[in-house]
Amino acid sequence: MAAARFRNCRTSARGGRAWGYLRLLAVVVLVASLAIPAFAAPRVPEKLIYELSWTGINVGTATQEISDEGSARRIVSTARSNNWLSAFFPVEDRIESSYDPEQGAFPGLVRHYRLRTREGSRRHDREILFEHGNGVARYRDNLGTERVDIPIPPDTIDIYGSFYAIRFLPLEVGKSHYVNILDSKRLRRIEVRVLRRERIKTVLGEVDTIVVQPLVASEGVFEGKGTVHIWLTDDARRIPVRARTKVTVGSVTATLVGGTF
């Protein structure tokens, strides 16, 4: 029954877009790093583990991790379908970004971004090399021939690092924050709205949270609709305990189930 429902959703969402929502929902849970007050220090290393579900059905897991390796800082995001879904629609995604932690605001000056995904029969392998000294980002499709050089301003960062980069900003209900990101081949200015405070039950117990709404406009997925909501613990840790968005059929949710934080 669950498999049939997911197939119907996948068909209506044009060949697998339902999982695309899940993968990018896993991406935006990095917004957890948004709201740590100015007196708090970022925590490195940190690893967050999420259960991904569609209309209440468990479909996989996702992880978000930041760590220091020698002179470099890395952010790694993964998403993987569970056994029943993998039987007919396997998903294995990995996205990595690297930074120079000695330059720029936290997490540092972005140097490299790479996205490798397998979703059903579709595969992608794309990367971006950031040359800040030359004011350019070099986009490459490793499975195709596309090569694009994109002019960038000095404060440009990738979509993952952008969520960490504004973590020192205070969050006030009714206010917004903005950040310039290079999302695939497009330079964007993303707005993050602070919606409300809410107390919810989580793996950490019953906690007070701040609900934020990043107006993510990644190609073909959120389409600027701003339907994503993220629940952050209302304390110095600002852990993302839940993220949710509506899709063509039902909704998808990322729920924190463990990690090191």
Quick structural overview:
The protein is mainly beta.
Describe the structure.
With 261 residues, the chain is mainly beta. It is built from 4 helices and 15 strands. The protein has helices at residues 2-12, 17-28, 83-86, 159-165; strands at 46-54, 57-69, 72-81, 91-100, 109-119, 122-131, 136-141, 147-151, 157-158, 176-183, 186-202, 205-214, 229-233, 240-246, 251-260.
Key structural traits:
261 residues, mainly beta, 15-stranded mixed sheet
**Termini Cα gap:** 37 Å
Q: Which structural category fits the helices and strands?
A: mainly beta
The number of distinct helices, counting runs of at least 4 residues, comes to 4
The whole-angstrom Rg is 18 Å
Q: Please count the beta strands (DSSP E, at least 2 residues each).
A: 15
Largest sheet: 15 strands, mixed
Strand order, largest beta sheet: 8-7-6-5-4-3-2-1-15-14-13-12-11-10-9
How confident is the prediction overall: mean pLDDT?
81
Kindly estimate the percentage of residues that lie in beta strands according to DSSP: over 45%
Give helix % range: 10-25%
Oligomeric description of these chains: single chain
The SSE string, one letter per element, is: HHEEEHEEEEEEHEEEEEE
What is the molecular shape? globular
Unreliable parts? 9-15, 29-40, 218-226
Task: Describe how the helices and strands are arranged.
Blueprint: H1 2-12, H2 17-28, E1 46-54, E2 57-69, E3 72-81, H3 83-86, E4 91-100, E5 109-119, E6 122-131, E7 136-141, E8 147-151, E9 157-158, H4 159-165, E10 176-183, E11 186-202, E12 205-214, E13 229-233, E14 240-246, E15 251-260
Parallel strand pairs: 9-10
Antiparallel strand pairs: 1-2, 1-15, 2-3, 3-4, 4-5, 5-6, 6-7, 7-8, 10-11, 11-12, 12-13, 13-14, 14-15
